[in-house]
UniProtKB/TrEMBL annotation:
Predominant cellular place of this UniProt entry's protein: mitochondrion
Organism: Owenia fusiformis
GO cellular component terms attached to this protein's record: mitochondrial membrane; proton-transporting ATP synthase complex
Name of a matching Pfam family: ATP-synt_G
PANTHER family: ATP SYNTHASE SUBUNIT
Ranges in a coiled coil: none
Name of the protein in its database record: ATP synthase subunit g
Residues annotated as transmembrane: none
Length: 117
């Protein structure tokens, strides 16, 4: 009985070691790639980029006033639409995280859950 238990324990240790080694070798290059892009894409903007963003926003306002938006190609319009959709989705994800609920706010006095018969 003790020999069988020892055999099962040895098999468990061997299997866990094998799985951990495989997981580490699988995850290491992917984590490295993630960190490479995260350092660039997820950092806060620098002061130089803030000036560039304000110039870009002014250019956007000017093109909206002059009607330049009517000459946008379909590919550019699709790209801009996808960017807008991504920003909206991140806004909604932030709202859900902030509320800590998917449904909405529970305002006392405004919500009535009881049934009256």
């Amino acid at each position: 009985m003790a020999a069988a238990a020892q055999k099962i324990a040895n098999w468990g240790v061997k299997t866990v070691t094998k799985v951990a080694t495989g997981t580490a070798s699988f995850a290491a290059p992917r984590a490295k790639t993630f960190m490479k892009y995260a350092r660039v894409e997820l950092r806060p903007p620098t002061p130089a980029e803030m000036g560039e963003a304000s110039q870009s926003f002014q250019k956007l306002i000017k093109s909206a006033q002059t009607g330049k938006w009517q000459t946008v190609t379909t590919q550019e319009a699709l790209r801009n639409s996808l960017i807008t959709l991504e920003i909206a989705c991140w806004f909604f994800v932030g709202e859900i995280i902030g509320r800590r609920s998917l449904v909405g706010y529970n305002i006392p006095g405004a919500v009535f859950y009881d049934e009256d018969f």
